[in-house]
# Entry
Amino acid sequence: MAHKKVNLPEKTCQQCQRPFAWRKKWHRCWEEVKYCSDACRRKSKQKSQPVTPNLCHAGQVEDEF
Ligand SMILES: [Zn+2]
# Structure
């Protein structure tokens, strides 16, 4: 029937609480992605959380819209 667009999965950023959608660069680690951007990831780390070494490199690549 009406099938205009593939629905990408969404999550809520744990830092800024805003929803963000799946991105290609996260295709291998979507389960682990918690933040919409590198900025949010960094901010959350500054809070006191220990650095997680195998966290997805969510913000390693510049956002391409
Ligand atoms: Zn965010």
In short: The pocket of zinc ion is lined by residues 13, 15-16, 18, 35-37, 40 (CB under 6 Å). The mean pLDDT is 81.
